[in-house]
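so my prof wants the structure for this chain in the tokens format not the other one, which i didnt know existed until like an hour ago. anyway here's the sequence
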Amino acid sequence: MDQHIITLAALGPDNKEMLTLGAFSALKEAEHLVLRTGRHGVAKMLRQEGVPFETLDALYEQCEDFDELCEMAADKLIALARQCGSLCYGVSEPQNDATVRFLARILPDDMKLCAAPGVSLMDTAACAVLPYGINTENLRVVTALSTQEMRVQADAPQVITEIDNRYLASDVKLWLSDLFDDEMTVYFIENAASARPILLCELDRQEHYDHCTAVFVPFVSVYDRTRASYEDFVDVVGRLRGPGGCPWDRAQTHHTLRQYMIEEACEAAEAMEQEEPEKIADELGDVLLQVVLNSAIGAEHRDFTDRDVTSMAAHKMITRHAHVFGHERAENAQAVVPIWEEAKRKERGEQNALERVLDVAKSLPGLMRAQKVIRREAGAKGETLCVEAALEKLHAAEQGVQSADKVCREEALGVMLESLCTLAEASGLDAETALRAATGKRIDALQKEFGKTRPTNEI
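here's what i got, hopefully its the right format
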């Protein structure tokens, strides 16, 4: 079966000087030539050379959205390829072009794509900043529209391309500001070739923007920025644990850090109760330090890395949310619980009541641990907890608390507390939260009695 060939010719930035000899030959020798747009500098040169071509510009007016444009462009190119021996499709950067990606996805079996590569806007941007002595090694390219779906990173220099209007420039500025300071120097790329330094905060205040406008963002170490990403934080902790790092951090083990993990988690929970956003962020940072520090220790012993931690957590979230990532349905929060529990059961395999309760961490606060044990035992046995039964057990233990024997009194008190946890679970309440709230109210009442303001760090 004869194959129809579609050659993708890279036109490069909007400048005929950027056209490679290979791409130019492909344009001239094609039996039929199609340009994505006639509004490109190469189109003028082709007219001067007497090279006939057609464009897809008319499709822009016919299509309601970009997806429809890609589909119609691909359909037209395939139809034209069947009519001629060789078809050439000229676009600025085939490797970054959505119409090319769609074409490759639906290409029939009797057709083949080949490419005549060329100069990219990333290449010209890298060359444009060389006079400023900027390091362009490991340069990353990001299109302006794609920033809406990405988180900004700072581990390498990057160029953001196709900033074709002021509103998009503003979006890119805000995106970069998530990690970079407003007064940082970036390089505004004009005409796909010339660069000039500006402040990041000035990115959306320039006089002109078009499809060749870009901004070059140099690499800036986390030690020279006020904001940091997760990867930055991992690097900082790695330096603390590495040669020449902090003696205290280097001396820590999983065992010595255990107490700090508990303390930091409790302090984060307290900040959440106080509903102070800045305090919550600060305390969560302390919790994250414990996660990253323990991950670094795990990596040093070749036990696990932070990638294992994030991979396990991500996989757990995906498998336990079949109503989001799979085919289950959950219309409300209550409907999620059985889906979550079924996913956990599949992960663990079949477990009896003893195996399930032995998995409950002993380091949990007493009420929290008791209620979790009660919940797991009931779930494993398929039992439904009863409020009335919990109350009966609670009242039955009252007499034991009045016993003259201290051991008996303590045992009876334990039964009462466990009964309260059962009562809380049966009622859909949380015993630990309830007790903390009651303690807080007692302290508030005392402070009002003695005319004192409650300290911000009070439980």
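also thought this was worth mentioning. The chain has a mean pLDDT of 89.
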